[in-house]
Amino acid sequence: MDNRLIKLYELLLSYYGEQEWWPANSPYEVMVGAILTQNTAWGNVEMAIARFEGNLNPEFVRDLEMEALKEIIRPSGFFNQKAVYLKSLTSWYSQYNYDASILRQEPMEKIRNELLGVKGIGPETADSILLYAFNFPSFVVDTYTMRLCERYSVCAGKNYNAVKQYFEQIFEPDAALYNNFHALIVTHAKTHCRKTPVCAGCPLEETCVRVGVERVSLT
């Protein structure tokens, strides 16, 4: 049992509290957000979503002309690629009649493999959709997770699958916990554990070994 990983979760939870992610009105909006957030800041995603003017649903995106879709999502950047990705994702979702309750009856690994076969969807986006849109216990790993694990000396691994597997071995399958832990990591990475860290006032200051920032002994 990795006490440092458990301690990390407890400290972040105590400091930041429950995060209640993902901010969206429907599972489909989460799916769209997971595509649009690729290689951009969340503020740009919010601007793009607002441009749907309340029409963010799979039927609307399905019927929308490609050029019109590109224009709507322009604020998110890489809009030519992302429009294609959204069309592909929406087409995939149609086999479940755009119904999250039908999709949730399928095995998680089946859905994950299908998502990974959709153009523009890699492991991080697939796991974000599984966890935040459909409430499957699939831990999301991102740059923030890798950075925090390294600095806090959690020996989770060096690649996406290794880190994901490590977290899921330490914590039993629990979508609510995975959701909150990942959200806490993102919040902390944006507040303190930035590329150039802000260690003063950090809730992990007393226990973080700051690997890659300044090396401090665990003893």
Notable characteristics:
disordered C terminus; globular; Endonuclease III, domain 1; 0% strand; 219 residues; mainly alpha
How would you describe this structure to a colleague?
The chain is built from 12 helices and no strands. The chain is mainly α. The protein has a domain at 27-133: Endonuclease III, domain 1 (Orthogonal Bundle). Helix 1 (3-16) crosses helix 12 (175-191) and helix 2 packs antiparallel against helix 9. The two termini are 19 Å apart.
Reconstruct the topology from this structure.
Blueprint: H1 3-16, H2 27-36, H3 42-50, H4 58-63, H5 66-72, H6 79-93, H7 100-103, H8 108-116, H9 123-133, H10 143-151, H11 160-170, H12 175-191
Helix pairs in contact: 1-12, 2-3, 2-6, 2-9, 5-6, 8-9, 10-12
Characterize this entry briefly:
By secondary structure, the chain is mainly alpha-helical. The chain is built from twelve helices and no strands. Helix 10 crosses helix 12.
Helix content: 55-70%
Q: State the separation between the terminal residues, measured CA to CA.
A: 19 Å
Per CATH, the class of the domain at 27-133 reads Mainly Alpha
SS summary, helix count:
12
Number of strands: 0
What letter string, H or E per element, gives the SSE order?
HHHHHHHHHHHH
What is the average per-residue confidence, as pLDDT, rounded to a whole number?
Answer: 94
Outline type = globular
Query: How would you characterize the largest beta sheet?
Result: none
Indicate the low-confidence ranges by residue numbers.
215-219
Name given to the CATH architecture of the domain at 27-133: Orthogonal Bundle
What Rg do the Cα atoms give? Answer: 18 Å
